[in-house]
Write a structure and sequence with these properties.
Blueprint lengths: L10 H19 L4 H16 L3 E7 L5 E4 L12 E3 L5 H8 L3 E3 L5 H7 L8 H6 L6 E7 L6 E8 L9 H21 L11 H5 L5 H14 L3 H7 L5 H12 L21 H7 L1 E6 L3 E6 L2 H7 L1 H5 L4 E6 L2 H12 L8 H17 L5 E7 L5 E4 L5 E5 L3 E7 L2
Parallel strand pairs: 8-9
Antiparallel strand pairs: 1-2, 1-6, 2-3, 4-5, 5-6, 7-8, 10-13, 11-12
Length: 398
């Protein structure tokens, strides 16, 4: 048993905690399958336990490994597997059916005290920039016969000490609830189909929020990533980490001091922006490609056809950071305000404000038969627009 920090927990705090725990348990029981537990309830579990991230594992059919409900390969749709051995924290917990509460997974002495073979794979942190530290990992087992059904893993509480004894007690009870739910809902896993789904699975946003963000992006005609960042406060690093988990491809942040590859001169800016990939680095043997969707790019064989003798290394990045990199390498674009688009945006805002949340789908079309006249001030900024326009809109109230 790991040493706990000295803490004082009042009876009122315990009652409040276990009341919230019961609410989470009720939500778990209301789900239809294990994947729904992960997608719908994971954020509630993180909030309850004060963890930054959460990973839920289930036991594979062979009973020799545990599978994450998040990770997807570049060209495959397989779950991420860990062997049930004592070489990883989650594997050790699955093997021994024993809860562990770790202060710092980078502390080899602390890991060795749990098991001589235990180690933490730091390469994932190195690729993503996320620093894993505290970890509370518990087995999910059938109460009647002790059969292993899965593993619940909480990551980072931000307090520089192990998860508290109250949280550990709550996790034990939570795993009992999960064991009942797992036993009732053992079905074939549902594949995570988009690169944004891991945001829910990892607890960055709730499933309902992702649905709202998707509607907002469709209604406004903008990229979903922009809505997640601007309206829902999702960090680009979080998106990058999820893309890494989805594509199994290293995430590349925007770097302000990047030197352009010599090969970049062979590609026009319009081509790069349209296809959303560019050559980041090159050597005689290797070409490193930065892409928004490395899976589709790999499937198209486009890069391999252009560089048949080179080994291609893919890096994934966010849509926002990709175009920041394009501006950096090609130079920032000078944009001229589009009067018709300005009018369209204004009408869109007026209609959105009028209908509010009752109109999830709004389509607007502005027809400008004659070129409008733009009146500008002394600095050249547009002051007013004069002309004729026809505005058509359709509002779906369902």
């Amino acid at each position: 048993m790991n040493a706990q920090v000295q803490e004082t927990i009042s009876q009122e705090q315990r009652l409040a905690f276990f009341k919230l725990l019961q609410e989470v348990a009720n939500r778990i029981h209301a789900t239809n399958n294990i994947d729904e537990i992960m997608l719908d309830v994971s954020r509630d579990i993180c909030r309850l336990c004060g963890s930054v991230r959460l990973t839920l594992y289930t036991v594979s059919e062979s009973k020799s490994s545990i599978e994450s409900k998040v990770k997807i390969g570049m060209n495959t749709f397989k779950d991420f597997k860990l062997p049930i051995t004592d070489t990883s924290v989650a594997g050790f917990v699955a093997l021994n059916k024993r809860i562990v509460n770790i202060k710092d997974v980078y502390n080899d002495a602390e890991l060795k005290a749990i098991s001589p073979s235990l180690r933490f794979e730091k390469k994932v942190d190195e690729r993503t920039g996320f620093r894993t530290k505290e970890m509370l990992v518990a087995p999910i087992v059938k109460e009647d016969n002790g059969e292993l059904l899965g593993v619940l893993q909480l990551i980072n509480n931000g307090h520089d000490h192990p998860f508290s004894s109250l949280i550990e007690e709550g996790v034990r009870e939570l795993c009992k609830t999960l064991a009942i739910a797992f036993a009732q809902r053992m079905k074939a896993p549902v594949v995570i189909r988009t690169k944004f789904d891991p945001l829910v699975a990892l607890g960055f946003i709730a499933k309902a929020e992702l649905v709202l963000a998707t509607r907002s992006a469709r209604r406004k005609g903008v990229d979903l990533e922009d809505v997640l960042i601007d309206e829902f406060g999702v960090k680009t690093e979080a998106l990058g980490y999820c893309y890494f988990r989805y594509f199994e491809c290293p995430y590349e942040r925007f770097q302000a001091d990047r030197t352009p590859s010599k090969l970049l001169a062979n590609f026009k800016r319009e081509y790069v922006e349209h296809n959303e990939w560019l050559v980041l680095e090159d050597t005689p043997e290797t070409v490193t490609v930065l892409a928004v969707d490395p899976e589709n790019l790999e499937a198209s064989r486009m890069v391999h056809n252009l560089f048949p003798k080179a080994e291609v290394k893919y890096l994934v990045t966010t849509h926002k950071e990709f175009f920041e990199t394009v501006d950096q390498l090609y130079g920032a674009k000078k944009t001229t305000p589009d009067p018709a688009q300005a009018l369209l945006d204004r009408v869109q805002r007026i209609i959105n404000n009028a209908f509010g949340n009752n109109a999830p789908d709004i389509q607007i079309r502005v027809e400008v038969p004659d070129k409008p006249a733009t009146l500008k001030d002394e600095d050249g900024a547009p002051q007013s627009i004069e002309g004729q326009a026809s505005i058509h809109f359709r509002v779906n109230l369902s």
